[in-house]
Amino acid sequence: MSDLAIDLSGVRKKYKFFALDNIDLKIPEGQIMGLIGPNGAGKSTTIRIILGLVHQDAGEVRVLGHRMPAEQVAAKWEIGFASEDMRLYESMTLGWHMGFIQRIYPNWDAAYAQLLLKRFGLRAEQKIKGLSHGQRVKATLLLVLARKPKLLVLDEPTTGLDPVARHEILRELTAVMAEEGRSILFSSHNTHDVEQISDQITFIDRGRIIDSMDKELYLDRWRRLRLEVPHGVELPALPGIVGVQQDGRLAIATANAYFPGLANAYETSGARVQRIESMTLEEIFVANVQYSREEVEA
Amino acid sequence: MRESVVGQLVWKDWRLQRPQIVIVLAWGAAALTIVRWGHQNTLVVGGVLFFIPLILLAHILPLAGVGNERKNQNLAFLMSLPISSIQYTSSKLISSLLIFLVPWLTLVSAAVVLVETRGVVPRGVIPSMLILAMMPVLGFCLILCAVLVGETEGWGIAANVFCSSTYGLAWFFMTQLPGLMGPAQGPVPVWNSTALTILGSEVSAAVLLLGLTYFLQSRKRDFV
Questions:
Q1: How many Cβ pairs closer than 8 A exist between chain A and B?
Q2: Number of structural domains, chain A?
Q3: Is A283 inside a domain boundary?
Q4: Do β-strands A32-36 and A183-188 pair in parallel, antiparallel, or remain unpaired?
Q5: Are strands A250-255 and A223-228 parallel, antiparallel or unpaired?
Q6: Are residues A79 and A122 in the same domain?
Q7: In A45, A260, B56, B70, which residue has its Cα 20 to 30 A from B124's Cα atom?
Q8: A74 and A149 both lie in a single domain
Q9: CB B80 to CB A79 under 8 A?
Q10: Which of B207, B208, B138 has its CA nearest to residue B170?
């Protein structure tokens, strides 16, 4: 029995103007993986392949031990999927949707559903067309969470939400993880949301995974070094430095594998290290994407 | 107890499209009431009014039941459920046929009973009437196929326009067939080879279209 909730190896999918190229993605059970990428990076295509809705041209996809897309029906009994572009039936009430899902899923937890109604400030008798965008997202998540899935796949669920609604949803997702063995794949271009709840982060750009590791490792490894470069001093090319921006006597070096020896190496070359700064996940994401694109174009 | 997901999807469609069924049945019943008066003018008006809801249902149901689900982004919600794309197709074919055929069979049966028992028109008209009533069924199957397989509103509209413009033409050609029009004024229905061939062709074409839909859907690699 595999202990990976999601296991993608060498997955390829080619469209006329876009291709997913050799995607390897592994999410251990009980982990929250944040999938971050700019618009059009391939997040939604990857997620649709994971759900068996899009067939890969090459590569292996296993979700909760099931081969996809062949065993998608068996897998989807244990997957809860919500996406930003998913809509419920406008003319029906939330209660009608709850009844519909309850009749399908034997694991439906009616008491938890009632609790979520309260926590999210929703009313079962309200028609979907009368709900705000935030309430619709919460309603969709309620329908997903109350069926108690082993794996949650969320494609940009917090897009367009106000900060309070985002906080409520992220808090609920964190609470879900209190139950052992549950896993979440959370895609977004909002790095702040992903940073709050994820254990692991994967960056995707232009159909390629450009980096994937533990969140704390990212925050630990990436640093920005502010340097003063005296006239006549040339900054050396150092391992672990992915970009240097220089403007006269001032330079900023970005490191993706920082270690104290880097600062010493700059000092030895004649530059003066003014400050070593931590980077936010958003800064790491942008730097990572830029570095990756430069690498590809070089 | 886990219930059949396809069964739940069919139930869901039935529940969503129930108002359409009620409207069509009420409209058809009103048309047959007008036909029952038995005057020349009310026969024509009632006859025309009788076919309008059947044609409307045939043309609107695939767009409302399948096309709108895609347009309104409900499809991602459905496909997140434990079903495959071919099970989704099965549920759509079953529910659409059920929702269309229940009012169609009810109204066509009522019309046949009316002709048989009330004698408002000669009984010989029954074969032509059934051939005419089968046209919306064919149109329904074609539009359903276009909407399911084509995946865009454009295909549904194109099939709609094609069917709308074909009904009149097909009826014109049928009125030129002596084997069909001759016995229509008679006191008993005549099931000659002309009537049976046309009716058989209509049924075969409908079955073929549904089979083709199923086949084309099963070959799709990307669904949402």
A1: 67
A2: 2
A3: no
A4: parallel
A5: antiparallel
A6: yes
A7: B56
A8: yes
A9: yes
A10: B138
Q: Closest-CA residue in chain A for B79?
A: A53
Residues A227 and A208 in one domain: no
Nearest residue on chain A to B17, alpha-carbon basis: A91
* Domain ranges, residue A248: 223-278
Q: What is the pLDDT of residue A2?
A: 56
- Among A168, A189, A214, give the residue marking a domain's end: A214
How many CB atoms are located within 10 Å of the residue A69 CB? Answer: 23
d(CA A128, CA A249): 59
Instruction: Verify that A100 and A182 share a domain, yes or no.
Output: yes
Nearest to B35 by CA among B19, B24, B46: B46
Same domain, A13 and A109: yes
Q: Is residue A290 part of a domain?
A: no
Query: Cβ–Cβ of A103/B3 closer than 8 Å?
Result: yes
C-alpha to C-alpha distance for B83 and B92, rounded to whole angstroms: 12
Question: Quick check: B82 and A76 CB within 8 A?
Answer: yes
Residues A130, A229: one domain?
Answer: no
Among A61, A86, A153, pick the best mutation site for testing chain B contact (most B Cβ within 10 A).
A86
Interface test with A, best of B16, B20, B69, B81 (most A CBs within 10 A): B81
This prediction's pTM: 0.87
Cα–Cα distance between A48 and A22 in angstroms, integer? 16
CATH of the domain at A86: 3.40.50.300
What residue ranges of chain A have pLDDT lower than 50? 1
**pLDDT given at position A171:** 87
Q: How far is B1 from chain A (nearest CA, A)?
A: 6
pLDDT of residue A160: 83
Hey, what are A46's tokens? 């990857």
Q: In Å, what is the CA distance from A105 to each residue of A18, A50, A228, B175, B183?
A: 36, 20, 63, 55, 57
Q: Are residues A180 and A250 in the same domain?
A: no
pLDDT of residue A1: 46
Q: Do both A148 and A234 map to the same domain? A: no
Residue spans of chain B under pLDDT 70: 1-3
Percent of the residues in chain B that have a pLDDT greater than 70, as a whole number: 99
Residue B83 sits at the chain A interface (C-beta within 8 Å)? yes
Helix (H) or strand (E) holding A161: none
For residue A73, being part of any structural domain is answered with yes
Could you tell me if residue A101 is inside a domain?
A: yes
